Amino acid sequence: METASRAGAETTSLKTAGPPGEHRVDGYLMAGFPWYGLDETYPGPRWLMRVGATSDGTVEHGSVGHGDKPSKDLKASDSRRFVVVVTVCQRAGRNAADGTGTLEATSVSTAAWLAGVGLLASTWPIRMDRSLRQAWVDQQTAAAWELADDLEGPGWSRLTLPVNGTPTPFHYRESAYGWVLAGQAADAHLGAYGRGISAYSLGFSVIADIASYHH
């Protein structure tokens, strides 16, 4: 895959949490590509999550949330309804800025991998015995990687959704924990994952003002 474990290995998370709100949005403003979120037909709350950057500070990808925020309350976590949209810059392969190797090209598979791992992190079974958790996470992470590497395989179906008003094909899959999709916009690779909100009702668009998303 052209991608993304590489997205995990080659990027560091720029956490944009904490007041004041301007600090949270800083990482997003550093990006050289547009951010995508749900379009204006979605009426619910919108919030910032995190961005990922290479060792030289170049922002490579990031996520924005819609709906219910993460909760430490176990019962609330089970009933959360949310959609997270992942934007990945379109990038050709290149040498790493620190001279330690090469950065692989990004692709729709990159967005699929990031969305799959995001869903895993948001919905893993909290009540699972602690001794079993890491084995479960490792198993599910490997499965997400294999699925992202085979977007034309039987693990995915096709779903057409509007992006900036234009019908756009996506790769789509469902699991016991929610759904994941990935596709291509004109100027970015897009991924999304969610739970409790149907993917079939969604549309995506460029975020005109990223600061309108709250911390």
Summing up helix and strand content along with how strands pair, one would put the structural category as alpha+beta
Q: State the separation between the terminal residues, measured CA to CA.
A: 33 Å
> Kindly state the mean pLDDT as a whole number?
82
Order of helices and strands: HEHEEEHEEEHHEEEEE
Query: Could you give the order of strands across the largest sheet?
Result: 1-3-4-5-11-10-9-8
Number of domains: 1
Q: Uncertain spans, ≥5 residues at pLDDT below 50?
A: 1-22
Per DSSP, the total helix count is: 5
Summarize the main sheet. Answer: 8 strands, antiparallel
Task: Say how many strands there are.
Answer: 12
Query: Radius of gyration over alpha carbons?
Result: 17 Å
Can you give the helix content as a percent range?
Answer: 25-40%
Percent in strands: 25-35%
Overall body shape? globular
Region (Disordered): 1-21
Question: Helices and strands in order, then pairings?
Answer:
Elements: H1 5-10, E1 12-15, H2 21-29, E2 36-38, E3 46-53, E4 59-67, H3 74-78, E5 82-88, E6 94-95, E7 102-103, H4 108-123, H5 130-148, E8 157-163, E9 166-175, E10 178-184, E11 189-195, E12 204-206
Antiparallel strand pairs: 1-3, 2-12, 3-4, 4-5, 5-11, 6-7, 8-9, 9-10, 10-11
Helix pairs in contact: 4-5
Region (Disordered): 1-21
Structure description:
The chain is of the alpha+beta class and 215 residues long. It has one domain (5-212). It contains 5 helices and 12 strands. The chain has helices at 5-10, 21-29, 74-78, 108-123, 130-148; strands spanning 12-15, 36-38, 46-53, 59-67, 82-88, 94-95, 102-103, 157-163, 166-175, 178-184, 189-195, 204-206. Strands 1-3-4-5-11-10-9-8 form an 8-stranded antiparallel sheet, with helices on both faces. It has a two-stranded antiparallel sheet with strand order 2-12. The radius of gyration is 17 Å and the shape is globular. Mean pLDDT is 82; it is low at 1-22.
